[in-house]
Design brief:
44% of the residues lie in helices and 18% in strands. It has a single domain, classed as 3-Layer(aba) Sandwich (Rossmann fold). By secondary structure, it is an alpha/beta fold.
Length: 125
């Protein structure tokens, strides 16, 4: 079973993405802060990370930067799922080191197809 680290401070959003991931056979490791997310990324070395951007303590931009610079696999896919939807936000998120970006609210019935599609695109690049 593949592990996925989900860094999300909103319990409802965490429950929704966990449901979608577990439906597809993933084991979810959760962090409710950016610092805890960095810590778990380094200690657990998950093959996929789902990152909220607006987090308590350090934001998802900083958490992503620290994960990329850490002993964790610097190429691990980090997918931002965030409410940041203003012009330029997507470019800023991708420039920060995230592999992909999806806006909230997510549809738990279709988000995994979107994530898998994004991961396939990355393999082909």
């Amino acid at each position: 079973m593949k592990k996925v680290l989900v860094v999300e401070d909103n319990k409802d959003n965490l429950r929704l993405i966990t449901y979608a991931l577990e439906r597809c056979g993933y084991q979810v490791i959760a962090a409710e802060t950016g610092l805890k997310g960095v810590e778990l990324a380094i200690s657990e070395l998950p093959p996929l990370i789902i990152m909220d951007i607006n987090l308590p303590d350090i934001d998802g931009f900083e958490a992503t930067r620290r994960i990329r610079e850490s002993g964790a696999d610097g190429t691990v896919p980090i997918i931002a799922i965030t409410s940041y939807a203003m012009s330029g936000d997507k470019d800023r998120i991708l420039a920060s080191g995230c592999t992909g970006y999806f806006e909230k609210p997510i549809d738990p019935l279709t988000i995994m197809d979107k994530i898998h599609s994004l991961l396939e695109e990355q393999k082909l690049s």
